Amino acid sequence: MMKNRQEQFNQLRGSIHSFSSNSDRYASPVPSSRHWVNNNNNNHDPFDTSALNIDYSDEENTELYGPIPPPRSPARPVATNIQNTGVQRKSQTTPTKNNNNSSFVQNENVDEYGFIIKRGRPSFRVNMSTKAMKEYRENELKWLNIINKLDAGTVKKDVKMKKLVRGGIPASVRAKVWQFLAGSDDYKRSNQFQNLLSKPRIPIYDVIERDIERCYPDHTQFMEKDGLGQQNLRNILKAYAQYNSDLEYCQGMGRLAGLMLMQMTVEDSFWLLVATIDRYMNGYFTPTLSQLRIDAYIIGQLLKDHNPKLAQHLENNDVLPIMYIAQWFLTAFTMTLPWESVLRVWDAFYFEGIKVFYRVSLAILDLCKDHLLHSCPTNSELLAFLLHIPHEYLEPNNLLDTAFRINLSKTNIKRYAKKAGTEDATVTGLPFEDGLKNLQVGNPGHSLGLKSLGGRIAKKASTKNMRDYSDA
Known about the structure:
Blueprint: H1 5-15, H2 62-65, E1 92-98, E2 103-110, H3 130-149, H4 152-155, H5 159-166, H6 174-182, H7 192-197, H8 204-215, H9 228-243, H10 252-263, H11 266-280, H12 290-306, H13 308-316, H14 322-330, H15 339-352, H16 355-375, H17 379-387, H18 396-405, H19 410-423, H20 433-440, H21 455-471
Helix pairs in contact: 3-21, 6-15, 8-9, 9-10, 9-11, 10-11, 12-13, 12-14, 12-19, 15-16, 15-18, 16-18
GO molecular function, one term: small GTPase binding
Region (Disordered): 1-31, 85-105
Organism: Rhizopus delemar (strain RA 99-880 / ATCC MYA-4621 / FGSC 9543 / NRRL 43880) (Mucormycosis agent)
């Protein structure tokens, strides 16, 4: 007989480690995400999920579920992140630091993004045709014109711009476009970043320090102990802890900040993190992970609507959405997808908002459903696969095409968010308003404010310019 949901959640809560920025449970060693740890702490909310820990090691877990067959249809390559030179970069050789003995390990191969190349990992890059390169350059110029002359609210109303973003933002302008779409300039205050870093030390710094080295252990920017990359990451997280004293720090933030640092300067990364959490991810990094818990219910209901057979299979094996979407959502898929796919998802996320996370989650489950249904008959096999999905299943074009074909409305998401508190005992009493606020970011009518424009005349002119740019 199936356990009731409260018993399931109590079992989950007791088996997973702490995400909470304010919890003493951080003091214990960090286990791998596939290991369930008994944690008998009765002094907290019985439905508190500030108890899920991320394993930053990105190990494959093949010993748990054996060889994984490739997806049925081969993934088609895609060219993404073409550099300013217009020449495709080959795998490079770079000295990397081994922190165990503080000596440099020579001749490590790295990909175009700076990650150590892992044997067997697929690459989805191909050389671009002359026509594709011309289109790429045109898109660069188009985005530069848009950023300089229009406001994000106007841009998000344009259907052609949505299509352009879904196809991928050029790497050379990605940092500027993310900041533009997120409205991070609205938050910037002169000298505030440095002022935050000069504030007295607070206890959460110890937690941040323990997480720095394991945020991106396989990326050259962050591999050197106390190198510039780690220093910048440390400064962003410490500054944010001072900036937002209610949240301070939660583990997933390090993955977000690290990705931002790969694209832009340290101070720009800080303000983008501020805007992302405040506008796009309300409620996700609270001590109780309130929005994540509500989203777990929403994903469960959406999966029942979209793929009832798979939903039933997961439920029959006591696999709750909270067990896998915690890793997906709190790190914004940076631990789940191939890096090409991560960047494409973030492009769409900054344009359309949190709805993209629901779409991508359902798309991942869609692409993996045959393997989950036919090759994962037990709880442990299902979880091992969902937390370490082979990248062959997650090629960027296929993933995004699948995600955007899914019929998903914000009305349904809102309806399930409001029902969560009455139908799921694990989220009773949690505020659903944060999720509704997050959904507003991607609304065509939600404006981040006009840039140097005012009144109806400016709005009309802005709309006309938008047509000019999207048709260019």
